[in-house]
Design goal:
It holds the Pfam family GDPD. It comes from Hymenobacter sublimis. This is Glycerophosphodiester phosphodiesterase. InterPro entries: GP_PDE_dom, PLC-like_Pdiesterase_TIM-brl. By secondary structure, the protein is of the alpha/beta class. The protein has one domain: Alpha-Beta Barrel (TIM Barrel). Helices cover 32% and strands 15% of the residues. The chain is built from nine helices and nine strands. Strands 1, 2, 3, 4, 5, 6, 7, 8 and 9 form a nine-stranded mixed sheet that branches. The mean pLDDT is 97.
Length: 280
């Protein structure tokens, strides 16, 4: 009897359900748990540094000012990462305030790290643990509306990220993710062999997304509630691997496992890894 391989475990923002998202503590804990891939988001600072952050501003839900004060929701976008030098960004704390949606999260002091800090910390830990270096899924947080306000244009944004990936010798371990098709189109032109994942959160048909994109991506990353047997069939016909997000509850994890995805992105990699231990 042939056994299907268990999907890759992708730790979303490290392990957002357990540690402060997109921080060194979250990434190190995810690696200790045993994730196959670390998923993270990058934005650009005023001095062109590649910063790990989901929003291109300081989220009122999790960040505090350099003075240690909470950030009012209506003012969060004023703390625009793209308008701040990294030396200032580093003074904000984004780890002491537990995210209200994740009661199991363990708060601790944490700043928004540079991409290179994350890679260096994870590679050091992997060496200490006797493991092969972890792979990365890196999402560029780009929107047409944000050009020049919260981030550079797609070509410049991609240029800065690729410069960093090359400096870190990370291209061979990286998949680039984006909702913004312009970024993926630019990446396809520059590096045709680089794995690219189109992220999707709407109900537009796969065929329409592919027509807009203009090429067949390596991976498709839909919000997991969008999965249907018909979509799975279409993806297989196009030879596109599936990595849905963000699957957290055990019942949902089991449901998604039935679709035999390439990987699953989760805030709770410990839950998915527990299921893997039962199967393997």
């Amino acid at each position: 009897m042939a056994f299907l391989p268990f999907p890759e475990v992708h730790g979303h923002r490290g392990c957002r359900g357990l540690r402060p998202e997109n921080t060194i503590p979250a990434f190190l804990h995810a690696l200790t748990l045993g994730v196959d891939v670390v998923e993270l988001d990058v934005v650009i600072s005023a001095d062109n540094q590649v910063v790990v952050s989901h929003e291109p501003w300081m989220s009122a839900a999790i960040c505090r000012t350099p003075a240690g004060q909470p950030i009012p929701f209506e003012q969060q976008k004023q703390h625009n990462v793209y308008q701040l030098p990294y030396a200032t960004i580093r003074q904000y704390d984004c780890g002491l305030t537990r995210h209200p949606y994740y009661p199991e999260q363990m708060p601790e002091p944490a700043h928004k790290p540079l991409l290179r800090e994350v890679v260096q910390a994870l590679d050091k830990l992997a060496f200490q643990l006797g493991r092969r270096p972890v792979r990365f899924s890196i999402e560029l947080k780009s929107t047409p509306e944000g050009d020049g306000i919260y981030h550079p244009t797609p070509s410049r944004f991609l240029e800065l990220v690729l410069l960093e990936l090359r400096a870190l010798s990370l291209l061979a371990r990286t998949t680039l993710l984006c909702f913004d098709k312009r970024v993926l189109q630019a990446a396809r032109q520059l590096l045709p062999a680089l794995p690219l994942c189109l992220l999707v959160e709407d109900e537009k048909p796969l065929s329409a997304h592919l027509m807009e994109l203009g090429f067949i991506p390596s991976l498709y990353g839909p919000e997991f509630r969008l999965l249907t047997p018909e979509l799975i069939t279409e993806l297989r016909q196009q030879h596109i691997d599936l990595v849905p997000w963000t699957v957290n509850e055990p019942a949902d994890l089991r449901h998604v496992l039935a679709y035999q995805p390439k990987g699953i992105t989760t805030d709770y990699p410990d839950r998915l890894l527990a299921l893997r231990s039962l199967v393997l």
